[in-house]
Amino acid sequence: MSIVFENKIVKYLTIIYFFNAIIEVLAELYSCEFIIFISKPLIPILLMVLYFYTSKSKGKLFYLIMFFSLLTNLLFIPNTSDSLFYGVITYTIHRIFLLILIFKIVKIKDFIPLFIATIPLGFIFFYLFAASDIPENSYYLIFFHNLMAAFLGGVAISSYVMDDIKQNSFLLISVLLFLGLQLVIYIEKYYLVESHSYALRPLAMILNILAFYVFYRFVIISEKN
Q1: Which of 36, 19, 18 is nearest to 27 (CA)?
Q2: pLDDT tens sequence across 164-218
Q3: Is there a contact between 72 and 105 (Cβ–Cβ < 8 Å)?
């Protein structure tokens, strides 16, 4: 397969990805569950196909991350306590694989900036944790999520501050979007649970779509480096 043909495929797949993203956001806005069940799983699937055509190494970890993202997306569609519980489990596994892949790419040389960057994020997430109505079956999982979120943000911020290269810039952008996504989901599912704040779902999907695409670009740039 020629490079020109591959580039065309990547270009068209990227257009399809963002076209599907617009459909998904609109479906969330108008609560069209049938369309959501189609468009939402397509987000990680299209990124896996994009990665297949653009990656030279085709690392298995990236596919695992996207697979568990797909499961999480599906489990977060129904607004029930059982689906939310299993969604939190798959989301936890997804985040663990995400951290493993980032640590394979980013080499931490100094842990002091990492510690300084992690502490303020930890305060934000644990304040929400303390003020939220979290079910008992998800309590320890959410606590673990907050630890991972603060640590993930600390890694991205400290890496960017210590070494301002394109790879670390993409990592910082994607992680900030991921943290924003987690905060929005957290507020919708636990903090404002009684107000049924469905207006937050389109915002969550916009952050989700952008976060994963920027993360995909981070992985591709790091592989080229």
Answers
A1: 36
A2: 788 999 999 999 999 988 888 777 766 665 555 567 788 888 999 999 999 999 9
A3: no
Q: How far apart, in whole angstroms, are the C-alpha atoms of residue 142 and residue 67?
A: 21
The whole model's pTM is what? 0.89
d(C-alpha 23, C-alpha 25), whole Å: 6
Sign of CA dihedral 93, 36, 84, 82: negative
pLDDT value of position 135: 66
Unique residue bearing structure tokens 């079956």: 137
- Residue 166 DSSP symbol: H
Residue 169, SS3 per DSSP: helix
Q: Which three-class secondary structure state does DSSP give residue 158?
A: helix
Find tokens 């609109």 and name the residue.
26
